[in-house]
Every structure is written in structure tokens, then in C-alpha cells.
Amino acid sequence: MILFTAPGGEAGCDISQIPCRVCSGPSSGFHFGALTCEGCKGFFRRTVLSNVRLECLGNNDCPITPANRNMCKSCRFQRCLAVGMSKTG
Length: 89
Prior knowledge:
Pfam families: zf-C4
Number of helices: 2
Main location: nucleus
Keywords: DNA-binding, Metal-binding, Nucleus, Receptor, Transcription, Transcription regulation, Zinc, Zinc-finger
GO molecular function: nuclear receptor activity; RNA polymerase II cis-regulatory region sequence-specific DNA binding; zinc ion binding
GO cellular component, one term: nucleus
Strand content: 5-15%
């Protein structure tokens, strides 16, 4: 269990009880500047390192959940950026 102090000063919160900002799964900590799960952390790192151009086959608004987060890499990466993930974070 990872404990942290919330911005409001509430100490001792189990970080896994706070959802990943990208897919809403259990988070594991702050990665690349955002509170995310291990899966989204690794996805972001691999995507940035591969420097590949991602394209959505839908309308660029695919739902990103723990169950379907691998369905659209483009929308998942855009969600990573939208929640504040950064190469320098």
C-alpha cells in the first residue's frame, strides 16, 4: 500500500484507491506528472520513446477504461496528454 498526503492535507490516503487519471483503473503513483496506473505509465513511456504517429479510426473520442484502454492508442495517448503527462514530468 502506498500512502500519500492529498493536496488538502489529508494524510494517509491509499493511493491505489484514487483512480488513474487516464483509464480510471487503480493508480500506482505520480508518473510523468500525473497520477496513473502502471499500464498507462508504461504505455506513455513506450509511445514517447517510439515516436510513432498514432491515428484514431473513430472520431477521436474513444472511451478509455481499464477494460478497453488498448483499443485505441491514439485516444489513450491524447488522454495522457490531456491529464498532464509530459516527457519531462
